[in-house]
Amino acid sequence: MIRVRLIPLTLASPGMVLESDVRNSLGQVLLKAGMALSEPSISSLNQKNIGHVKVFQEDERNEETLSAERIKVTERINSMFRNVPQDGTMGALKQMILDYRLEKLSS
Amino acid sequence: MSIPHPMSVDKILESVGRLPSPPRAIVEIVRTLEDGDASAEVLAKQIETDPGLITSVLRLVNSSHYSISGGVPSIRHAIVLLGFNAIRNLVCVNGISDYFKQSSQNIFNYEDFIRHSVGVGCVAKVFAKSVSINPDSAFVAAMLHDVGQFALAITAPDEYRMVIDYKNTHNCRISDAETATIGIDHAKIGAHLAKHWNLPIEICSAIEFHHQPPDSVVNRAPMSDLIHVADVLSHAMELGSTEQVSPLSDNAMLRLHLSLHQVAISLGKIEEEYTDYTHMIGL
User: Is B236 touching A (CB cutoff 8 A)?
Assistant: First the structure.
């Protein structure tokens, strides 16, 4: 399965295909969607202080790995929210962050 | 071995007052953030009073990040090319971040501290316009919201160590550890310092009340509410922070007319801002 991921430039590697245009802070297009990244283009983006890129990525995780990651994320969020009420606004906020993280994990 | 005894609150406040203030040019720019008649000319003059600031602004705008052909020779050109607001924001965020780096004296982990401050800044910036607050002022208040913690670590390291030990032993929030060990928390210490530096009153209040915004229905201090909300969210989103989440004030959300739905649809945007800013200031 192919998924779209927003990854920090430090995790970008040659061959990854851009899902969307890479723009600088003035909105100018530096690299177009559909292009494959290369060593020179990654180092050029790095020099231009681009922090992240949106790329297509083959999802190599199996259901077992995904489920272990989901448990890890859930435990982490439970720990971060350990000293606040688990209902009302804080309960809703916790659920919102959990949904966001889990959706990111499976997208 | 004698049991360590912390300084009195008065002594602590006297001690943190010795922390060098941020560069005069930055303080001046922060003071004029809310001026309706702040102009490019005034901003250029403020930056040009500080050689360090000139160098750092020109270095940033000439980095290929901005891809400006021919280069940017002066501060005035930078303001024309990139815009008044962009340069002012860049000067404030970068200037305060540099100030923390330079004052940390290798005894404080400034990187995590700045990451968290920038995280709060990004959340505050994303919601500032929708709650009618100047995003630059909000970012500055966010960058300085924990300055009390920084000041305590630098000027009263023994007391700071006692706070951290207490926090680790009791598995509590840092402000509770501060109140229990030294009788005052970093929000009050920070506000004291910000007043000492003559920063605008809404920034001082935002620092003072970022854990507990005033509990009234009337919207008297929107900046305090915004920084409180941004602080809680940045912890919840773990933007440069591993500190446990504190309770979010329902009243602050109500006064800002901010809903959890608005927050939910902004999470991606906040994370993108955060990645960009941490990259810009080299973290």
Answer: yes
Shortest CA gap A24–chain B (Å): 6
Integer CA distances (angstroms), B134 to B49, B92, B129, in order: 24, 13, 7
Q: Which of B280, B282, B283, B273 is nearest to B120 (CA)?
A: B273
**Chain A to chain B, count of Cβ pairs less than 8 Å apart?**
84
Q: What is the ipTM of this complex?
A: 0.85
Put simply, whether A50 touches B (Cβ < 8 Å) is: yes
Q: What's the pTM value of the predicted model, to 2 decimals? A: 0.83
Whether domain B106-283 has CATH 1.10.3210.10: yes
Q: What letter represents residue A37's amino acid? A: L
> Who's near B161: CB < 8 A, 6+ residues apart?
none
Q: Residue B177 in 3-state DSSP?
A: helix
Residues B230, B258 contacting (CB under 8 angstroms): no
pLDDT at B201 over 80: yes
Domain boundaries, chain B: 21-103, 106-283
